[in-house]
Amino acid sequence: MMVTFAFPLYFKNIVCEGRPEGDALWGGSVSLSMLIVALISPFLGAAADFSGRRKRFLLVFTALAVLCSALLGLTGPGMAYSAAALFVLANIGFEGGQVFYDAYLPDIASRRSIGRVSGYGYAMGYLGALSILLLLFPLLSGGVVPSNSDNIRLGFVLVALFFAVFAAPLFLVLRDENRIPLAVKDFRRSFSEVRYTVMHIMKYPDLARFLLAFFFYNDAILTVIAFSSIYAQNTLGFTTAELVGFFMIVQTTAIAGSVIFGILTDRIGPKRTIVLTLCLWCVVVIMAILSTEKSVFFATGLLAGVSMGSSQSASRAMMARLTPPKHVTEFFGFYDGTFGKASAIIGPVFFGMISSGAGDQRIALASLLLFFGLGLWFILRVRSATTRTGGEVSRDA
Questions:
Q1: Beta-carbon neighbour count of residue 356 at 10 Å?
Q2: pLDDT digits (tens, 9 = 90+) for 25-57
Q3: In angstroms, rounded to a whole number, what is the distance separating the alpha carbons of residues 220 and 229?
Q4: How confident is the model at residue 60, as a pLDDT?
Q5: Does residue 389 fall inside a structural domain?
Q6: CB under 8 Å to 376, separation ≥6 — which residues?
Q7: Please, which of 13, 69, 113, 207 could form a disulfide with 322 given CB 3.0 to 4.6 Å?
Q8: Which domain holds residue 256?
């Protein structure tokens, strides 16, 4: 609702009143929020690791996302910079919170079940996305146009409420162990820890190769997600109602992909699962390029949903397997923050430059095959047998 579908169209068509510069301001807002998260995540992750207060960090970021998403319901025509600033803060809250959320995975799942638990988590996320689309469909059915702006703004408030209600159980149930008071010196220590990690990351060669692979293929995946609605509307002429239906299909198959491939990850390992999903993504891109009919693009969405859920859950399981236990949140800060968010900055810019220069979104879409190919090349060089403890190098040593 806020990143892929409703708010981007609302921002361009209503807040920016359809002006061309709305695209640049929207792209800049997404990139700025991702850049900030990429810069701060490793340091906050390190601070959370040695303080044992992951839940407190997660609560602050979640509250920021909820509050700023609700405030976006107050924006309207002529408030472009205010809306952009609120979106940047909301996206920092959501994306930054993912670092601490994902870092709980090794604590709540055994090594044998880590793949399926990761898959179940993504499946529930996609079920939530499908649910909010169904819940808000009456408000969206009139299209993202000025005459329907009151309904759209109400939808943003309901999104924030939905987020808050379903985030609450985590804070009520999960408990952090070995908590210690957090002082200013701990944040200085986090800078030292991150600097050490960056300098010695090659001591975890499989982790380094995986992060490079993740950077490239996640770059392509996030670009597909960011431009899917624009591509469908501009290149294939989708209406708002057709877009809602399309994203419902994608979310439904993403649920199935997350569960099925989560179980498959535990059977064949995350590396083989990632290789398989990257091959599926290449098929998705080729199908989208060749699509001239809406029905073909709907079929492409089916496969894209399966690929999206499976690649994300398998990647998280792979990261959990390769991460040394004492640095789990810090390393997930690099995974979710530095590598995950940095790729979200570069991919859309690359796509936009090629699309603008060539005058054809299909050519820009074809360029993403290069990123998937590089990701596949690096992931094949990761030794999947590496364990979370076996690859650790002690700083004291």
A1: 10
A2: 887 888 889 889 888 877 777 777 766 778 888
A3: 15
A4: 94
A5: no
A6: 213, 217, 275, 278, 279
A7: 207
A8: 6-379
3-class secondary-structure state, position 380: coil
Identify whether the C-beta of residue 188 lies closer than 8 Å to the C-beta of residue 47.
no
Q: Is the pLDDT of residue 157 over 90?
A: yes
pLDDT in the model for residue 380: 94
And the tokens for 85?
């600033």
**Using CA atoms, how far apart are residues 61 and 63, in angstroms rounded to an integer?**
5
Single-letter residue type at 94: F
DSSP 147-207: GGHHHHHHHHHHHHHHHHHHHHHHHHH---SS-----HHHHHHHHHHHHHHHHHGGGSHHH
Which class for 178: exposed (0-12), middle (13-18), buried (19 or more C-beta within 10 A)?
Answer: exposed
> What's the structural domain count of the chain?
1
Q: Which long-range contacts (CB under 8 A, 24 or more apart) does 196-205 make?
A: 196/395, 197/42, 197/46, 197/327, 197/330, 197/331, 197/334, 200/393, 203/393, 204/322, 204/324, 204/391, 204/392, 204/393
Residue 259 sits in a domain whose CATH number is: 1.20.1250.20
The residue that leads in pLDDT, 1 or 71, is 71
φ/ψ (deg, to 5) at 78: 85, 0
- Let me know: does 227 contact 351? Beta carbons within 8 Å: yes
Backbone φ and ψ of 389, nearest 5°: -100, -30
Q: Give 289's Cβ-side CA count (13 Å radius).
A: 15
Residue at 397 is within a domain: no
If 0-12 CB within 10 Å is exposed, 13-18 middle and 19+ buried, where does residue 394 land?
exposed
Would 385 be classed as within a structural domain? no
Q: How many C-beta atoms lie closer than 10 Å to residue 235's C-beta?
A: 18
pLDDT at 200 over 80: no
Greater pLDDT, 301 or 346: 301
Task: Check residue 373 and give its pLDDT.
Answer: 95
Residue 72 — very low, low, confident or very high, per pLDDT cuts 50/70/90? very high
Q: Is position 386 within any domain? A: no
Provide mean pLDDT across the span 89-96: 94
How far apart are the C-alpha atoms of 125 and 257, rounded to whole Å?
A: 12
Percent of the chain whose pLDDT exceeds 90: 29
* Segment holding 275, helix H or strand E: helix 270-290
* Position 222, amino acid: L
pLDDT for the residue 115: 84
- Enter the pTM of the model: 0.77
Distance CA 136, CA 342 (A): 31
